[in-house]
Amino acid sequence: MFHTTSTLGALPWALLAVARLTNAACECGYSLNKTSDASHAVFTELLENDFLHTDAQSLELKNHGWQPQVYNVDKATARGSFGKGFELENIVTNPLKTSGWSGDAEHGGDAGLELWVRANPRNGLVSGAEVVTVRDDALLGSFRVGMKLSNSSGTCGAFFFFHNNTQEIDMEFLSHQFNQSQGAVNLVLQSPEAEARNWDASGTSGFRTKLLPFRPDNMFHEYRFDWTKERVAFYVDGKFLHEITDNVPQEGGGVFFNHWSNGDPSWSAGPPAADTVMTISYLKAYFNSTNTERSQNAYRQRCPTYDPSKVCAIPSQSTAPDASIGKTGAKTYFFSHEKDMTPGQTLYSSAAINFGVPSLSLAVPILVMFLSWSLM
Ligand SMILES: *[C@@H]1O[C@H](CO)[C@@H](O)[C@H](O)[C@H]1NC(C)=O
Ligand SMILES: *[C@@H]1O[C@H](CO)[C@@H](O)[C@H](O)[C@H]1NC(C)=O
Ligand SMILES: *[C@@H]1O[C@H](CO)[C@@H](O)[C@H](O)[C@H]1NC(C)=O
Ligand SMILES: *[C@@H]1O[C@H](CO)[C@@H](O)[C@H](O)[C@H]1NC(C)=O
Ligand SMILES: *[C@@H]1O[C@H](CO)[C@@H](O)[C@H](O)[C@H]1NC(C)=O
């Protein structure tokens, strides 16, 4: 794009310097609230997945930052009337047929990453699905998912951060808690206290069931948690729901999704009467890293001196990200769909789709020439 500069003799150096400034952003990270707000938090790392436009075999999900999990938990360990089997075949990408934000999905139904729970237990196990981020270095951050839950009673669908069993942040949806008018989400910070109660967190300060004024199996909604040192704040479609301040995790880990049933009437219930799906339309995570190569070296390279003007505020999703809301209801903001908003980030292969990024390559040289001349 700089081929025209060669005709300008001594100018190329100035051109490059200015082009960098006009062309790149977010070198110093991503913020919750604006950096000018009294209370804000800055995170240096980004992971974004647009599952409406992701087409991959389950094992290829690794190329998108996600590792499918395959393992069994026997009935005794699962503490239910069935064990749990996590299987590859229950993890299915189902992209939209076009690069737009609505319309038919490849395999019918809702577009997105599907996690299935099967109706008929086999060998005493209910077959379900689990995926986890390849990265396990997330420490503090804002974690957001566009998700539609199972419409069949008897499963648990979960979105969670995990370091270990006592440092864990959960948003868990039990489909038996949904009815015609309402739903619910269970917010949990696992703790040594829950461990002492044989992993029954429900009597601890780290547990709260919040009613939702809609059916989570009806539409996609955005579920989010903001994890800072002092608290974990939970949000739905950008609206604050609840916060927990005890046993806030202080160690790094990864992000998980799973969808399962073990027949325990006091939790997942089930198994479901029919095969049933939970669908994820996107995951967006902005976080700090426990990996010093990332948090020190890579960050210092792109942001040698902290400059708040090089921090990008993370936009809030304030409506349900669902295709039924207008033509573009499912269209949400991705830094990774913009030009040069992810400098130095670890990006996994993105969808093979051009998202109509405005052609800066034409605009920049003109602007740059103007600036360089006015400097002379
Ligand atoms: C962002 O601002 C809101 C509203 O003032 C506040 O409740 C929240 O704690 C702030 N978040 C952070 C991470 O500072
Ligand atoms: C995240 O890391 C950056 C760089 O070390 C630091 O400036 C920032 O305060 C950290 N964020 C939080 C919420 O601690
Ligand atoms: C439940 O979801 C499945 C899969 O998306 C769909 O085929 C079925 O029609 C839904 N059933 C009801 C009662 O909404
Ligand atoms: C979880 O990790 C923390 C910090 O490393 C440790 O203190 C705690 O004992 C661990 N809990 C379990 C159940 O392993
Ligand atoms: C619907 O479900 C909610 C949450 O599980 C519950 O509190 C409410 O009483 C239920 N309403 C009806 C009409 O069953």
From TrEMBL:
Keyword Lipid metabolism part of the UniProt annotation: no
GO molecular function ontology, one term from the record: hydrolase activity, hydrolyzing O-glycosyl compounds
Pfam families in the cross-refs: Glyco_hydro_16
Keyword set, alphabetical order: Lectin, Membrane, Signal, Transmembrane, Transmembrane helix
Xref: SUPFAM superfamilies: Concanavalin A-like lectins/glucanases
TM spans (from-to): 355-375
Signal sequence coordinates: 1-24
Domain GH16 residue range list: 64-291
GO terms classed as biological process: carbohydrate metabolic process
Entry annotated with the keyword Transmembrane helix: yes
Protein known as: Concanavalin A-like lectin/glucanase
